[in-house]
Amino acid sequence: MNKKAVIVVNLGTPETPTPGAVAKFLKQFLSDSRVVEAPKLLWWFLLRLVIIPLRAKKVAHSYGEIWLAEGSPLRVITGRQVTALQNQLDEDVGLGNTVVCEAMTYGEPSLSHTFQRLREQSIQEYVVLPMYPQYSGSTTGAIYDQLSAIIRQSRDVPDISVIKSFHDHSGYTDCLVQSIRDSWEKNGRHEKLLMSFHGIPQEYVDKGDPYYQHCLGTAEAVAEKLSLEKDQWAMSFQSRFGPKQWLQPYTDEQLKTWATNGVKSIDIISPAFTVDCLETLEELNISYRELFLSEGGEHYQYIPCLNDAPEFIKTLATLVKTKLFN
Fold it and tell me: pLDDT in tens for each of the 326 residues of the chain?
């Protein structure tokens, strides 16, 4: 059997929690037209002369609050996922039949460098696993763009399969449900469950991006499996950026509304993220906690991402095997 490669792809991270490293990362990330759809010349000036100078120091401080001794949480946990998935596939399909590695859409290790390194090992068959359960052109779409560039530069085009989304995969939603139940058992169950997804501009969805429907599908599946009534949970969207209208309700406004209406305790989870990172560890677990408590809430329980939980790794292995060995 020829060795096959699995490339786990996530967004990326600054190399260090410093303004300079953050500025470098933001420049690459926010220059991608998949992420920000705006007139190129105008955006070039705004990004470099206004947005990055204003945001780099603040974002670096936020990273500093969550940075681990080993490095960026996203990179550290992604590394653990890669190791765990490699071990699972070795067990499932035999030692030496697959090689699992990571790549980042922005920053290092880049997708193109990862492919180059693997092709030097004479690997010809690949599964690319974007760690975004819900497809969006602004995330998974950007990975397809990079893969297209790799193919255009290849005389011998590699055999590439992409796991476009897994928002409705029963193994994935079962893992979310178990994570919530585990939190309830350990920390108690609270009045409301909020499923907060990363937001995108509303106009992206209006143009055909299926992200909202994917998020809704995930949230409804989890609520159904937990036997939740409609007034016991909500779906919201976080991390909005810029003046455009983004998908609603916004997470911060949903938290304020609940607190104003007398809700004293909530559980919050972000199914859009499979790895704890800045948007979960700082935004959800620190900033929004402070917001909810300042508005009159009394208990705010953040439920971590699935990360390298064994059952989630088994689910990823199942997804990969379906592409590689069917």
Answer: 578 999 999 999 999 999 999 999 999 999 999 999 988 999 899 999 999 999 999 999 999 999 999 999 999 999 999 999 999 999 999 988 999 999 999 999 999 999 999 999 889 899 999 999 999 999 999 999 999 999 998 888 889 999 999 999 999 999 999 999 999 999 999 999 999 999 999 999 999 999 999 999 999 999 999 999 999 999 999 999 888 899 999 999 999 999 999 999 999 999 999 999 999 999 999 999 999 999 999 999 999 999 999 999 999 999 999 998 76
**Burial of 74 (C-beta count, 10 Å sphere; 0-12/13-18/19+):** buried
Which is nearest to 251 in space by CA: 294, 209, 283, 218? 283
Alpha-carbon separation of residue 314 from 78, 103, 104, 174, 239 (angstroms): 15, 20, 22, 12, 30
The CA distance from 126 to 140, in Å, is: 16
CA–CA distance, 40 with 28 (Å, rounded to integer): 14
CA dist 274 and 210 (Å) reads: 19
DSSP codes of every residue in 157-199: --EEEE----TT-HHHHHHHHHHHHHHHHHH---SEEEEEEE-
Residue whose C-alpha is closest to residue 248's, from 263, 234, 262, 267? 234
- C-alpha 245/C-alpha 169 separation (Å) is 30
Neighbours of 37 (CB within 10 A): 14
Gap between the Cα atoms of 251 and 257, Å rounded: 10
Residue 61 host element (H or E): helix 52-66
**For residues 157 and 234, what is the distance between their CA atoms, to the nearest angstrom?**
45
CA 323 to the chain's CA centroid: 21
Residue 313 CA to residue 306 CA, distance in Å, equals: 9
Between CA 119 and CA 115 the distance in angstroms is 6
